[in-house]
Design brief:
Radius of gyration: 24 Å
Shape: elongated
Number of helices: 15
Structural class: alpha+beta
Number of strands: 22
Strand content: 15-25%
Largest sheet: 4 strands, antiparallel
Distance between the termini: 30 Å
């Protein structure tokens, strides 16, 4: 039986994560500490998770998290909601609303409701002049049309099947990318095959024909004999984005989402800016393009969220010299030093400059046979990782179209099941 309730009526507890300065408390390792940027719709992002000591975690007892807790973003992207997963058994957080559900509502059902249905409530309850935020009091007043547990479980079985597939794709993509990265580093950074040949050995997991592509000694520059150093900006083009306010969307006309650092990290949202189609072609982004944010949060990814427009502070990276996988991992090879450069900048937003791309050197074999051979192994893994991400985007779009109709009762359970069965 469906009934109308407020969140406070069905939650055991609604509280807020730690609010206050954390700059001196972060460690390289320790208890995971979640911030608003780690909370994405329906899932927790493991990128840029900070850590705190067990001692500080115990001091922040009220903001400690455990699996099944529902967290709602207060500032940044207010209302974004996810459930703490089972594989994050001990964690803490900053500036998040924490909800512990009672027996009448499933945590995952609440997260779906907040992300899809409660958006108007969140938008109308934001407070603050400088930086708007969503507070605990407003969270407690979120109205929910709540079916019984059995009906909730039916809805969750449908939406959960899509999210489980998305989660699986994420793990597959991460595994394939890591495999490709490891092989790139072995061949082009650590020079493992050359070291093996120098010892008169056949390189591990390599046939004699492929091994013969590598030299069996090193030159005085420390490179495999016959190889050379080339800079990142020699092997790839780094196109900086445009000031897209010059290309505003036209009323009633089609437009493109503006891809900024936030979108690169968390994806396109309803709050993403828009640009008109008059944006010059070179600044238009499509699936498969490699994007690299050179200021703020330095990161690189293959874009898989459809057409968009490239904003300033992002590079679109391409090459006519080396394959896409090669320049992707070549930038990745230098990412940590780029982040250190950016962190050392005495500005509000650290960044790298063009000369850092000129100074970042990559080992290139004289004969392209090595890159061709590597491409036969790395290329398919790299492409399958991208394909998994693209499939996840399609599944997320289906989930987001089904979610409000399922929640409102507009779509029957069986009809939704049929649509999901076709894709998972």
């Amino acid at each position: 039986m469906t009934r109308e309730v407020l969140l406070a009526d069905v939650a055991r507890e609604v509280t807020v994560g730690h609010v206050g300065s954390m700059a001196d408390e972060y460690l390289e390792d320790g208890i995971p500490f979640l911030r608003s940027l780690n909370i994405l719709p329906h899932r927790i992002s493991r990128q840029e998770i900070r850590h705190i000591s067990p001692e500080f975690h115990r001091r922040l007892k009220k903001s400690a998290l455990k699996p099944g807790d529902v967290v709602i973003v207060r500032t940044g992207k207010p209302g974004t909601c996810a459930v703490i997963p089972d594989d994050l058994p001990v964690a803490n957080c900053s500036d998040l609303v924490i909800v512990r559900c009672g027996p009448d509502i499933r945590p995952r059902f609440l997260a779906y409701w907040v992300n899809a249905i409660a958006t108007d409530h969140v938008a109308s309850h934001l407070v603050g002049a400088v930086q708007q935020h969503f507070n605990v009091g407003a969270a407690k007043k979120i109205p929910i049309v709540l079916p019984g547990i059995a009906e909730q479980d039916k809805v969750l079985s449908i939406l959960g099947a899509l999210d489980d597939k998305i989660e699986l794709n994420g793990r597959i993509s991460a595994t394939l990318e890591e495999m490709a990265r490891a092989l790139y580093r072995s061949w082009f950074v650590d020079f493992d095959p050359v070291h093996a040949r120098a010892l008169g050995q056949l390189p591990a997991h390599m046939d004699p024909t492929t091994a013969a592509l590598f030299p069996d000694s090193f030159g005085p520059d420390g490179l495999p004999k016959g190889w050379e150093w080339r800079s990142l900006d020699e092997i790839a083009d780094f196109l900086n984005g445009a000031a897209l306010q010059k290309f505003p969307p036209q009323d009633g006309a089609e437009s493109l989402p503006v891809i900024k650092i936030a979108e690169l990290r968390s994806g396109i949202t309803a709050k993403s800016g828009r640009a008109g189609l008059q944006v010059p072609e070179k600044y238009k982004i499509n699936d498969g393009d490699v994007l690299f944010s050179w200021s703020g949060s330095l990161l690189q990814k293959v874009w898989t969220e459809g057409a968009g427009a490239l904003n300033q502070h992002l590079f679109k990276v391409s090459s006519e010299v080396v394959p896409k996988w090669f320049h992707f991992f070549a930038v990745d090879q230098h990412m940590e030093e780029f982040r250190q450069v950016a962190a050392a900048k005495a500005t509000t937003m650290g960044h790298i400059q063009r000369h850092h791309l000129k100074e970042a050197m990559i080992a290139i074999p004289e004969d392209d046979g090595v890159i061709t051979a590597a491409g036969e192994l790395i290329g398919p893994a790299f492409d399958r990782a991208i394909a998994a991400d693209l499939e996840s985007q399609a599944l997320a779009a289906l989930r987001d179209s089904l979610l409000p109709r399922l929640m409102s009762g507009e779509l029957r359970i069986r009809e939704a099941e049929k649509q999901v069965e076709e894709v998972v």
